[in-house]
């Protein structure tokens, strides 16, 4: 424990398959924390109660009484803090903020995981040196968050920073359809799922055998070894992501773009070619102005962002 | 004259071929004003002095001494108020703000015409009912401005809202190259120049005779008469513009998008199909949320925006 900076913020992060909770100090240090994989038998309300119990256990271990509660949710959150579905049955019926407030008797702040991932990285991670950044989380899907002047920019309806649904090949009939109802979105070309699908297609086209459980991590590793199928697959994803980043910079003119999520763990095998392609995808006036960085907080960007949001509300 | 709201803001708007100056009241009413076409013999410094004289004449006619000066410039302006080139020889060498301050002994505020077009429309025009909007000016080129919480959003380097250079067909080798160094930008597909070029191409392909001085206005008029070549040309431009608008909304989630500039004067012949295409180009979570409106201030959006900026600085 840190006497000068007690762990007095309780933070939760509800993802599609995992949830975390932890106590966080004002300087972003993570104290006692728990990670739980959602039991398949749990519906939304059951899972929430299970995590509330985890939170109660944390508080029992804690020396400092918590001052506020920040919650990251892996789905849309409106400007009133109401959550929407998350591929988990029964979530829609929950008034997450009220239930949290009842359970802990504390002010509760809720936002979605991509917005809070951006805030976490800005406050404690790869963007500590700036108050303005865009955050892309590239995993199964592609989410986004924009932090302007140190605050999450939520937009008029709470659905700003939908970076995954910027269309970069909307007129290409060969581009994949996206879950969002469009075609050729960044998500449909550069998400982990899209990379795996494209790798399978490219390997089949090249007459290569099917690889069981082929994922983005294997694609980047094979690209690092110079294998042609993987280089081609990576190029498609990187080009789409680069144009998505460039479009965000055309709108927001930011000094830093941070990429997190599972796909970003490929490190320089992603960021090397991505930086080159982003420069090419920018108009001349914007070239050389933004730094493209890997997220620094790993799986904890959103949890720490939730804590930062709760801290800001106390200040 | 209006006794309760004197014309005490002096505003200038320097475009590529025309400049305006006018006295503006705090409620946005335009008082005495002048419009000058730049004599071809004038270089930047000569033209500036000519307009300063016009401004001095206005002040002689004015009852109220001006309190501040706002300047719109048809080219990039950095965050320190320095201007960059504008296809007019000798502009680069001018310290516009300092020269204006010397000439009038007043505080001077400078921004680019697209940013100020957005601010003018937000304060006095098509966006009076909101504090948040995106503004597209569609004329020879395509420029952009974003107004967030009633202020121009300039970005870290003063080059935010480059909406014309969002790429919507970056991977299409048949898409036109853009002046910005890229391919398939909104500007290269939907500007007045792009529409005229595409119309010429489509007519030639259809074996139709060449039309002298064919411009976007004729294309929209012919589309209104149902002529196939014009419908095809319009569809290309509208689709590109729609995806540009959709990308801006994916990033900023705004309630209102205003389009001004010469091409927007086509009115419903543009806005009708555009509204439909923007909805199709949005992800489901953003559909039905933003209104697409025609600019209300015609050629005066930027001049009145410059006045609004000067007023805000006084407040």
Using brief descriptors, characterize the structure shown:
homodimer; Nucleotidyltransferase, domain 5; alpha/beta; 38% helix; 315 residues; 2 domains
Task: Characterize the structure shown.
- The structure is a homodimer of 315-residue chains.
- Chain A contains nine helices and ten strands.
- Chain A has 315 residues and is of the alpha/beta class.
- Chain A has two domains: 9-118 and 300-314, ATPase, nucleotide binding domain (Nucleotidyltransferase, domain 5); 129-295, 2-Layer Sandwich (Nucleotidyltransferase, domain 5), CATH 3.30.420.
- In chain A, strands 3-2-1-4-5 form a five-stranded mixed beta sheet, sandwiched between helices. Chain A has a five-stranded mixed beta sheet with strand order 8-7-6-9-10, sandwiched between helices.
- In chain A, strand 4 (68-73), helix 2 and strand 5 form a beta-alpha-beta unit.
- The longest helix of chain A has 25 residues, at 228-252.
- Chain A is globular, with a radius of gyration of 20 Å.
């Amino acid at each position: 424990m840190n006497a000068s900076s007690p762990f007095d913020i309780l933070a939760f992060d509800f993802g599609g398959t995992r949830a975390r909770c932890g106590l966080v100090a004002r300087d972003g240090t993570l104290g006692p924390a728990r990670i739980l994989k959602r039991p398949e038998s749990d519906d939304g309300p059951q899972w929430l109660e299970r995590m509330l119990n985890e939170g109660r256990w944390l508080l029992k271990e804690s020396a400092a009484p918590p001052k506020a509660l920040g919650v990251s949710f892996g789905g849309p959150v409106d400007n009133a803090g109401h959550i929407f579905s998350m591929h988990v049955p029964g979530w829609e019926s929950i008034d997450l903020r009220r239930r949290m407030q009842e359970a802990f008797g504390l002010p509760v702040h809720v936002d979605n995981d991509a917005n809070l991932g951006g805030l976490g990285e800005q406050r404690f991670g790869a963007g500590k040196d700036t108050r303005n950044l865009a955050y892309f989380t590239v995993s199964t899907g592609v989410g986004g968050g924009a932090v302007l002047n140190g605050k999450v920019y939520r937009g008029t309806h709470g659905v700003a920073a939908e970076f995954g649904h910027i269309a970069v090949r909307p007129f290409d009939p060969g581009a994949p359809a996206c879950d969002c109802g469009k075609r050729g979105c960044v998500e449909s070309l550069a998400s982990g799922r899209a990379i795996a699908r494209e790798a399978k297609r490219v390997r089949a086209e090249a007459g290569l055998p099917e690889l069981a459980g082929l994922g983005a991590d294997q694609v980047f590793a094979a690209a690092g070894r110079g294998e042609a199928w993987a280089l081609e697959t990576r190029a498609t994803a990187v080009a789409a992501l680069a144009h998505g980043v460039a479009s965000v910079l055309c709108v927001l003119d930011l000094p830093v773009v941070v990429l997190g999520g599972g796909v970003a763990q490929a490190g320089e095998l992603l960021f090397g070619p991505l930086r080159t392609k982003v420069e090419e995808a920018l108009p001349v006036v914007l070239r050389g102005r933004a730094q493209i960085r890997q997220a620094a907080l790993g799986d904890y960007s959103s949890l720490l962002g939730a804590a930062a949001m709760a801290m800001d509300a106390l200040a």
